[in-house]
Every structure is written in C-alpha cells, then in structure tokens.
Design goal:
By secondary structure, the protein is of the alpha/beta class. The protein folds into 2 domains: 62 residues, Nucleic acid-binding proteins (OB fold (Dihydrolipoamide Acetyltransferase, E2P)); 225 residues, Rossmann fold (3-Layer(aba) Sandwich). It is 21% helix and 27% strand. The protein is built from 6 helices and 19 strands. It has an 8-stranded mixed sheet, with helices on both faces. A 6-stranded mixed sheet has the order 1-5-6-4-3-2, with no helix packed on it.
C-alpha cells in the first residue's frame, strides 16, 4: 500500500461489481470497489488494496445513505462470506443481477439481445437445501470472505433445518450421491429448467445432447419428450446417479456416457439441440469445437457465471443469441444464474466495446 491509502476519498457509488462490492470512481477516474456499499451511497473511504486496473476501499463515513440501503438482518453479515446483499433491498439486488447479466453479454459477448426480467421464486431465506460447514479448534461456521478463517455461525438464514435426500422438479424425482452436484434452490431451479425447456423446444423425434450433465437433471427435464436424450459427464458417480434417475422416472430413451465433454466419440450422433451447464470457468476450447462440429440447430447454455458464458457466446461462431433469461438462484448473494438460447445463423453479435 502507498501513502495514498491512508487518504480519505469522497466517492459516489454507481453500481455493483461481480462479487457484490459497490463500484465508484476516485477523483482521478480510477475504479474503486467498496465492500458493503450501495448504489447512490455518498461516502468517505480509505483504500485497502491497490492493483494496476482497480483499487479496493472500505467505508469510513457514510455521508448520504442510498435509498436502497436497509439494515442487515444477520449478526454475522460482513464477517461471514456467504451473503453480499443483505444491506440492500431485494428489488435493488434483482436489478443489480439483471444488469450484470446484460452487461456481460453486451461487453464481453458482443450480443445485442438483452434479458428483460430476472426470474425469482420469491423466497429470500430458507431456500438452501445444503451448505458446507467447517470446523476448526472446536469452532463451527463458514469461512470469512477471501480467507480460511472460520466465522462462528449458530444459524444461517439461507439454510432450510430440512435436509434433502431427494429433489422433485415438475413431477420428476432426482437423487444424488453425497458430494454430487444438484441445484440447492429447487424453487428457482424449477423456473430455470422450465425456461431452458422452452428454449430447447424439443420435438418427439429430435435428439438432445446434454454436456456436463451431472446427475441428469437437465437431461431428463429437457429431454423427457424427445426422441432420444444423451447426457455426458466425466464423473463416474454422477453418471451412475443419472442412470438411476432415468430408471426412477421411467425415461427409457435417455442414456448417459461417462466421458469428457470434449473428448468422447459421437458415433454418428446428430443432436437437434445441445444443452450445457458447465462449471464456473465455462466451456473449454475443445468443448466449443465439439459443439461446433456436431452443429445442432439450437444450443441452450445454462451458466452460473455471466462473464464466461458471454465469452463462450462469442466463441460459438455461426450462432447468435435469440433469447436470454436471468434467474436469482442464490438470493442475498452476488451469484446469478442465466440461460441463453443460441440459434444457428442468427446474427446478434455486435462489435466489442
């Protein structure tokens, strides 16, 4: 840190970063991220971290409080790293997340198509079916943001006291092995899956290919009425769960392959639609090439990271975004889920900003 770090800077917060910090500019124009700030806050800050392209700061005095600011309702908020938006209204949170999705698609993806709404199940607390607690030296809780220090937590407002052994979505029952991935907010997951199914628009004779299929939830939900549904995932336990879920739900035309999404042999498979729900880092270059090689008419891309989704949208040459949906999968946190429909030959890509 430099001597400038000890200086007091007056700033006006204009928006939010991808990790939920307030965004403002220092008098010289440099971007500063301020933890715990709200849009339209006018505050005095000191700098806590300096990088080449941006700096981070903390509020030392709130001059004018934002109209969107509310008192946090959790005693460990700000210490525990779980939530980032308990200090603003839920309406402001939804607006911030919608802007984040649209900004990523425009700036990174070069897409002119925007999401007009963000879907929400309306439940901001008690929606998580599971979470990872940590214990050290007799202390149990969650990690402090950006560290492995444990913040003691007696009760988390996001958690449901009911542990889910199985999950129901639109009449389909899913079970998964311990540690296997399944959306922890089933109410919001249903909204996301319904929209993805609408985008996929699979006809009775068509084939669905679902990459990064996990326990088969999206494969079976989207491909329930397709002619054939094929899920691919590299995790053996997830594939076994997916096969059992297909049997459990009586979907005999579904099959699951344990392989890397980019390195398996398609054996003449010609999907009408490819769906993908990759990890936060997005599609690998090889996975992009595989999708382009298979040349479906439609791609349904589900993502928990708008930035990597937008990057991949630009890489999927020959396809354009025709529809976009944002979903608030994790209320009171900075995370946002999104789903896009890409169609072959649709031109929606503009020049990069």
């Amino acid at each position: 840190m430099t001597a400038a770090s000890a200086m007091i800077h007056k700033v006006t917060v204009t928006g939010y970063s991808s990790d939920g910090a307030g965004v403002a500019r220092l008098p010289g124009g440099r971007v500063v991220f301020v933890k715990g700030a709200a849009r339209d806050d006018v505050c005095e800050i000191t700098l806590t971290e300096e990088e080449k392209r941006f700096v981070r700061g903390k509020i030392v005095r709130l001059i004018t409080a934002s109209p969107y600011r509310i008192p946090p309702d959790c005693s460990v908020y700000g210490g525990c790293g779980g939530c980032q938006f308990r200090h603003i209204t839920y309406e402001e949170e939804l607006d911030a997340k919608l802007k984040r999705v649209n900004d990523a698609l425009q700036r990174i993806g070069g897409s002119s198509v925007r999401a007009d709404e963000i879907l929400s199940a309306g439940q901001t607390d008690g929606y998580r079916s599971r979470a990872v607690l940590h214990t050290k030296d007799g202390v149990t809780g969650f990690y402090r943001a950006g560290s492995h220090e444990i913040v003691p937590v007696d009760r988390c407002l996001l958690l449901s006291g009911e542990a889910a052994g199985s999950y129901e979505l639109d009449g389909l029952i899913f079970r998964c092995s311990p540690g296997a991935f399944f959306q922890v907010n089933t109410g919001a997951a249903l909204l996301l899956f319904q929209r993805a199914r609408e985008y996929a628009a699979l006809q009775p004779g068509e084939t669905l290919l679902d990459l990064y299929c996990g326990v088969g939830a999206l494969t079976l939900f989207l491909g329930r009425n397709a002619g054939r549904a094929v899920g691919v995932d590299v995790v053996p336990a997830a594939i076994e769960d997916a096969r059992q879920n297909a049997l459990r739900n009586g979907i005999g035309h579904a099959e699951f392959i344990c392989a890397d999404a980019a390195k398996w042999e398609a054996d003449g498979l010609r999907p009408g639609c490819i769906s993908a729900d990759p990890p936060r880092k997005g599609l690998t270059a090889a996975a992009v090439r595989k999708i382009l090689e298979l040349s479906p008419s439609r791609i349904v891309y589900v993502s928990c990271n708008p930035a990597t989704l937008a990057r991949d949208v630009r890489l999927l040459t020959g396809y354009g975004v025709s529809r976009v949906c944002a979903v608030d999968m994790f209320p009171r946190t900075a995370h946002v889920e999104c789903c896009v429909l890409l169609e072959k030959g649709t031109v929606t890509v503009t020049s990069a900003h």
